[in-house]
Amino acid sequence: MSEGTIALVTGANKGIGYEIAAGLGALGWSVGVGARNAERRDAAVEKLRAGGVDAFGVPLDVTDDASVTAAARLVEERAGRLDVLVNNAGVTGGMQQEPTTADLATVRTAVETNVIGVMRVTNAMLPLLRRSAAPRIVNMSSGVGSLTLQTTPGAETGPLSAAYSPSKSMLNAVTVQYAKELRDTNILINAACPGYVATDLNGFRGHRTPEQGAAIAVRLATLPDDGPTGGYFNDDGALPW
Ligand SMILES: NC(=O)c1ccc[n+]([C@@H]2O[C@H](COP(=O)([O-])OP(=O)(O)OC[C@H]3O[C@@H](n4cnc5c(N)ncnc54)[C@H](OP(=O)(O)O)[C@@H]3O)[C@@H](O)[C@H]2O)c1
User: Fold this and answer.
1) Which of 74, 204, 208, 232 is the S-S candidate for 198 at Cβ 3.0 to 4.6 Å?
2) What is the pTM of this model?
């Protein structure tokens, strides 16, 4: 068993996920850089290591059973357990997405990645998380997954989104179900919104930096034992569902 804290961040080769890995690494943690592309993964690991982070690469496509199983095996062989899982990998499928003309393959890919991918990775990592003294799971959601905000006149919830926003609403709903099932364990699981962040995801139109977007995930990854579970937060506090 490794003595230091072990974290895994999915989709950590760039954007917010990279900065989450950097932020957790700055705490002295060992951080698995989950990424599906070998070149991008190696480059991220190298850059994190150059910055003093104890980073290691974890080949991981969240939509692929065999890849996720192998990732869990790799973490087990390296550390014997997992303390923190950040389910950050996500896709939009492009914007904007009118429901009446939506490409259903795009909807399917968004759900497969943003929801089922999170469940696949979480369930594969749970045996390792259960060995931790203070397991934390952070699901990177989005404010656009808030049905309350989507139906509040004047609230800024972006363009029409038949695939992406509903996938994040479902991710929120799934997060609540996990929290209910795991209520009597020491596992805390929460959903996070990073704000509107300049990354590849939105053609770098966001007004926040990836580092700013990573802050809420780092906070939820480092919750004390009496911290919340089954919640939905951004930097300012709880978000409406
Ligand atoms: N940017 C924003 O304003 C914003 C706002 C709210 C929520 N979010 C959420 O924040 C998270 C990170 O987004 P970002 O803005 O940092 O976007 P990004 O720069 O596009 O990064 C997305 C990451 O997810 C990875 N990924 C996608 N599909 C994957 C799969 N099947 N398996 C493994 N990795 C996969 C990507 O890997 P590749 O490099 O291989 O594609 C990339 O590393 C997402 O969940 C997103 O929905 C972002």
Assistant:
1) 204
2) 0.98
